[in-house]
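Narrative of activities, Objective 1.

The group set out to show that a structural description can be obtained from nothing but a protein's sequence at a throughput compatible with the screening campaign. Below is one input-output pair from the validation batch, recorded exactly as produced.
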Amino acid sequence: MAAEMEQAIYVQADLAFEADRVRLIDEAIAAWGQLDVLINNAGISKVIPHGDLASASSTVWHELNEVNVIAPFHLVALAESALRDAARHRRAGCVVNISSHAGIRPKGASIPYAVSKAALNHMTRLLAVSLGPDIRVNAVAPGLVDTPLTAEWTGAQELWRTRAPMRRAASPDDIAKAVAMLIESDYLTGEILLSDGGLNLT
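Output recorded for this entry:
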């Protein structure tokens, strides 16, 4: 993908590791000399039935929170200075966190996953208060998205086809457009944009 986009670069990083997070931000700023937008899109999940409390071990909790909560916070902290520079010279810096409808409704692949996304949502609001007006912080909370990962999730696919007002799961492009809208706005901050085709209404 980076090869197809003029002037794009690709930096491989495992966000479970603090050193990789530092390197990611450092290399981005070194390449461009500035940082206007940070999208926290990386995340991990673990499928565990909600009633199976014994399988939701402390190891699972730590792994999910490290990537889904701590890493986004750390990346914002690392990028804060550059994002504030954007506000001084251009527009307000912008952070968009990719959350999940599981952080809003009592759903999701597992309780630890849903709780990590709920924490990310609350962190989004806290950061919006703390960093404004120089930096805006919002989140998009998708429901089911059609990707190779979800292709075999027949139960979820059927749920969205039959109960969601839009009668389908989201496409990656649907979510990308929601993110682009939040980036383009100069006013919205602290918002959690639930993007589930209206399933939450049913």
